[in-house]
Amino acid sequence: MPEVKSKTVRKSPRDILREIVLSSFENFIYYIQKEHFGYKPNLYPYQLRIVEDLEKVLRGEITREIINLPPRYRKTEIAVKMFIAYALAHNPKAKFIHVSYSTKLALDNSEAIKDIVMSEAYQYLFPEVQIKKDSKAKEKWYTTQGGGVYATSSGGQITGFGAGSSIEEYDDEVEESEDNNEGIEEFIPVNPEDQNSVFNYVFGGAIVIDDANKPEDAWSRLMLSRVNERYDSTIKNRVNSRFTPIINIQQRISKNDLSSHLIKAGGWNLLKLKALDDKGNPLCSKIHTRDELLQLKKENENIFNSQYQQEPQDAEGLMYELIKVDKIEKRGLSISACDPADDGECYIASIFAYIYDNTIWVHDVVFNQDGSEKTIPENIRKAKLHKPYAFWFEKDGLGSIYAKQVKQKYTLVRTFNAKGNKDARIFDKAYLVSKHFRFLNISPNQEYENAINNLSSYEKKAENNEIKDFADICTSLMDIAIKNKLINIYKD
């Protein structure tokens, strides 16, 4: 009987490229970078470490992953947008919940993932991954095969959606546990040494948390505890099985942030990427050189230790190192700023200063608890005396009322918003206030002396400071000077 020769099945260039791109997360990123975003494919060494850990998550070798690294190091692009798009290419049924501190950020990331999936480059290799036509919302969208993404904030609602595959979808990898009297099914994990095991395990999705804590909440025990409680009560319970991976990516901001909460609980794989290693080498000199990082450390060591070194410390010691002078010359640009107070409780804090030689020279203040009936006329009197080019008032509280009444007598009035947590604002600008402000060595009046004493005794541990109003208005005036280019903080 004649021998029948089998036909050789030749793979098309598209099929070959598809295999290459699917073979590793690194290859997928390079492909999307070049073909979708249109720039030269590139991953720095530290990013390859992130890619390696996420590959292990995809293979089922890691189910609880924490990645800590500095801000602006492209963590969201790789660990959220690229990773979820890559996982859907492997399994269009994969279900993800994406969480961030901001609803807007979470929704923007969700939209970016959808844009990658719908791109011409992605569809060329993975046409089976289709977005349902009725999935137009950024908050929640589905693939035609039942996968999808639900995006929300760390304080938002998560209803009607679970991450990962259900236990029934692990049929081929599940067996009854002999040691469990209740007969709960036990998952057989992938054996990392068995290279074929990657084909026996299908990744079903994950919860991906990206910066659950706002940096501005670093000093708020209430906000930090709320996020931790939210994770325990809601977020971690939105998995479709106990084998669904949870990935927490964030820059550290506090010893009480979500990463700390999870590390204390145990069972998490931690990838900690410090901006400067123990030998003083930068994590990525293309992003920050060693000298740039040391300058950041000099400006605010606590923020540097937390956000850049991933090692938050308890803040100790005094906040300010005040520079005092014997005389302030009344030259340069006259400027004033005021933080109005509610009558009888907080302090009203106003600063009258001159800006020259890249320095803010404080020559007069209003700092008391006398109430608006007395302090509004006092601010008007000093404004007419010192003639600032602009008198800035914080809008919050009585600010708008103060601004309107002062403007009737002194027209050069402007307003500003002090955004974020007060303690965080103060801490962030304390170094710059110490560097660019000058105060009189001999106080011209009692209110000036009280204000300086309050500032010089201000502690880094925020809860120890009962009166924060003068520190806050110094911070606001520093912000105003920077935003209006009256001070160059980069000039030596």
CATH topology of the largest domain: Rossmann fold
By CATH reckoning, the class of the largest domain would read Alpha Beta
**CATH evolutionary superfamily of the largest domain:** P-loop containing nucleotide triphosphate hydrolases
Helix content range of the residues, please? 25-40%
What average pLDDT do the residues reach? Answer: 87
Q: Strand order, biggest sheet?
A: 3-4-2-7-8-1-9
What general outline do the C-alpha atoms trace?
elongated
Characterize the main sheet.
Answer: 7 strands, mixed
CA(first)-CA(last) distance: 92 Å
Low-confidence stretches: 170-199
Number of domains: 2
Please give a structural write-up:
This protein has 492 residues and is α/β, with parallel strands linked by helices. The protein folds into 2 domains: 13-273, P-loop containing nucleotide triphosphate hydrolases (Rossmann fold); 324-483, Nucleotidyltransferase, domain 5. It has 15 helices and 16 strands. It has helices at 13-23, 25-37, 45-59, 75-90, 103-118, 120-125, 221-233, 258-265, 290-299, 301-308, 372-386, 399-409, 422-436, 446-456, 469-483, and strands at residues 64-68, 95-100, 140-142, 148-153, 174-176, 185-187, 205-210, 246-250, 269-272, 324-325, 333-339, 348-356, 359-368, 391-394, 413-416, 437-440. The strands form 3 sheets. Strands 3-4-2-7-8-1-9 form a 7-stranded mixed sheet, sandwiched between helices. Strands 10-16-13-12-11-14-15 form a 7-stranded mixed sheet, with helices on both faces. Strands 5-6 form a two-stranded antiparallel ribbon. Helix 13 (422-436) crosses helix 15. The chain is elongated, with a radius of gyration of 29 Å. It starts with 12 loop residues before the first helix and ends in a 9-residue tail after the last helix. Mean pLDDT is 87; it is low at 170-199.
